[in-house]
Specification:
By secondary structure, the chain is an alpha/beta fold. It is globular, with a radius of gyration of 21 Å.
Length: 329
């Protein structure tokens, strides 16, 4: 069986830290844990400028961590690298590592800070045919893909409205749901600012926005992260209602039925059909998906530099709309 040598650049939350916070070895929440546990990959190293983080990584995984990517490649020569640094550094790290002719790159979302930098990644994919997965992880969850199949088969009927609650910024958290709804319903063809809102951390806007995905209008409403974190979605169809709760850990579908008390009334069932989510192991599924692609069993990636650039273009268009609203406001 083919085994790919793998490394992580950036040992923050998604790189390694969630391993310590979950307290559950069955949960695969980080790139380091996924590379370590998936049988088709062998974790060979990591990079982080923080000496303490490097030491923690080395103690946990018994493989070396380095101060720079050049040291990493000099000593380990991985085939697959996960970029888990802050977004503003994505393209710089990307440009450092592509000279090593990697089999694949996994990068955190959003793909980049701007369309110019995102284009560098899509140009690389187009020129080399080497995959660049962008970790919009919900596209790899078997539960979400079951949901996608249900939508395609019209199990929920025509989905005509929806609501997304998000907090901690449109780019940071809201973009997950923009990307997810593009995957489920179609590309964005309408953006209307409902409320300009505020900004998370001074840089990431938190507006209320009405998006149209294909034929479906979905309102994105910003919650206050300092009160409690919220990332949830509700979709209303002609045959029922879908709830995507706890960030996707719980997926429920309520079908229509005749009201048992009042004739001619149609109501939602009290009993939900539960769609099993694998969100707490989704980084393992990302690697399984990549393995199938690299081995020729899968022709397309659910999320890559091209699809993530479409999501970034929606964020950019929203920012432009917000600026216009501010200028006229």
């Amino acid at each position: 069986m083919k085994t790919w040598r793998a490394a992580v650049i950036g040992l923050g939350q998604i790189g390694m830290e969630y391993d310590y916070q979950s307290g559950n070895d069955e949960q695969i929440l980080t790139h380091a844990a996924a590379f370590n546990l998936h049988p088709s990959y062998r974790l060979v190293g990591a990079v982080d400028p923080d000496k303490r983080q490097r030491k923690r990584f080395e103690n946990k995984y018994q493989v070396p961590a380095f101060n720079s990517s050049s040291e990493l490649f000099l000593n380990t020569r991985p085939d697959v690298v996960a970029i888990a640094v802050p977004t503003k550094y994505h393209v710089a790290v990307f440009e450092e590592i592509i000279k090593y002719d990697l089999s694949a790159i996994i990068s955190e979302k959003p793909i980049a800070d701007n369309m110019r930098d995102a284009k560098k990644m899509t140009d690389y994919m187009r020129a080399t045919k080497h995959p660049v997965i962008i970790n919009y992880m919900r596209r790899f969850d078997p539960g979400v893909n079951k949901l996608k199949q249900m939508i395609k088969q019209k199990t929920i009927g025509e989905i005509y409205k929806g609501i997304v609650w998000y907090s901690k910024g449109l780019a940071n958290n809201g973009s997950h749901y923009i990307d997810l709804l593009i995957w489920l319903l179609g590309e964005v063809n309408g953006i209307k600012i409902i409320n300009k809102g505020r900004s998370w951390g001074g840089t990431d806007p938190e507006p209320d926005v009405l998006y149209r995905f294909g034929k479906t209008e979905v309102a994105f409403l910003a919650g206050r992260e300092e009160c409690f974190s919220i990332v949830e979605m509700e979709l209303i169809g002609t045959k029922g209602k879908l709830l995507y709760r706890q960030g996707g850990q719980k997926i429920e579908y309520f079908s229509c039925q005749l009201d048992p008390l009042f004739p001619n009334y149609v109501v939602l069932s009290n009993r939900a059909r539960v769609i099993k989510s694998e969100l707490m192991r989704v980084q393992w599924h990302v690697l399984q998906h990549l393995k199938e692609y690299l081995s020729g069993k899968r022709k397309m990636l659910n999320s890559d530099a091209f699809t993530a650039t479409k999501t970034l273009s929606v964020l950019e268009a929203t920012r432009t709309k917000l600026k216009g609203a501010a200028d006229h406001g």
